[in-house]
Amino acid sequence: MEIRHNELIQMYPIGYVHNIFKEAIFDEKMYSSVSHIVLKEEFQDGLKDITDFSKIYVLFYFDRSEGYNLIQKRRYDGKIAGVFASRSPRRPNSIGLTLVELLEVKGNMLTVRGLDAIDGTPVLDIKPFIENDMAGDDLRSA
Ligand SMILES: C[S@@+](CC[C@H](N)C(=O)[O-])C[C@H]1O[C@@H](n2cnc3c(N)ncnc32)[C@H](O)[C@@H]1O
Questions:
Q1: Distance 112 CA to ligand 1 centre (A)
Q2: Tens of pLDDT along 94-133?
Q3: Which of 28, 49, 100, 135 is the most buried (most CB within 10 A)?
Q4: In this structure, is residue 8 part of a structural domain?
Q5: 58 burial type by CB count under 10 A (0-12 exposed, 13-18 middle, 19+ buried)
Q6: Could you read off the pLDDT of 46-105 as tens digits, one per residue?
Q7: 3-class SS at 72?
Q8: pTM of the predicted structure, to 2 decimals
Q9: Distance between CA atoms of 133 and 41, rounded to whole angstroms?
Q10: Do the domain assignments include residue 87?
Q11: From atom 12 of ligand 1, which residue's Cα is the shortest distance away?
Q12: Which residues line ligand 1 (CB under 6 A)?
């Protein structure tokens, strides 16, 4: 297989986050607050059966982050660590990943609790959290 270096990968958001958090600053309240994710209508059918799951992963784009440091101080324990050993919003590909509680789905709108993305954040993907999914078959065949 040919290894492709510096390949540009383009993505369009599938939807956007709506909540009360307007600035990209750490706020503990995010982890207990409710957010809405409004999907573009063209993707609504992709939500079929998502309520089979009580938790979902939300992948999003840190659109208000600038730059990154490969080595930086990690928030949760203060350790000087590599960016890939941290959850920093300042990272090479600006991708965020959060496991949230799925509260409700109405049409193209999901209501979730615990999303640490601010208002207007572009959402790249949504995936269900499957208990024990690292065990194998579920993850590979889902
Ligand atoms: C520490 S990051 C962790 C995000 C996710 N749980 C992860 O691990 O990828 C969460 C912080 O990112 C910042 N943030 C949220 N949405 C953002 C956005 N759209 N652009 C830039 N920073 C954002 C906020 O300050 C928030 O407290």
A1: 16
A2: 999 999 999 999 999 999 999 999 999 999 999 999 987 7
A3: 100
A4: no
A5: buried
A6: 999 999 999 999 999 999 999 999 999 999 899 999 999 999 999 999 999 999 999 999
A7: strand
A8: 0.93
A9: 29
A10: no
A11: 89
A12: 24-26, 30, 62-65, 87, 89, 96-98, 116-118, 121
Q: How many structural domains are present in the chain?
A: 1
- Band of the pLDDT at 134, cuts 50, 70, 90? low
Among 119, 64, 62, 102, which Cα is nearest to 86's? 62
Matching residue, tokens 């957010």? 35
Say if 85 falls within a structural domain: no
Whose Cα sits closest to atom 9 in ligand 1?
A: 96
d(CA 17, CA 116): 10
In which domain, by residue range, is 23 found?
15-65+93-141
Pair type for strands 80-82 and 71-73: antiparallel
